[in-house]
Amino acid sequence: MKNNNQIKITYKNDFVRIIEKNGIRNFSSLIEWMESFNNNENVGLLTLSGRDLGSAISISKNNVKSIEFI
């Protein structure tokens, strides 16, 4: 059963990152980016703000192999 509170990103170098809803401020932006990416739409660089001070994650279509809810 898929959980809409966690997203798994697999990068082209096979690194896997799990992003949890409660760890990211703009989780809804990530969902929108994921849906566009999975529909082969043009997506740009997305920078996500972490809940911890100073933490951020950037994702680019150029280095993402797959992205999905887990």
Automatic annotation (TrEMBL):
The domain of life is: Bacteria
Q: What is this protein called?
A: Uncharacterized protein
Organism from which the protein derives: Romboutsia faecis
Taxonomic placement: Bacteria, Bacillati, Bacillota, Clostridia, Peptostreptococcales
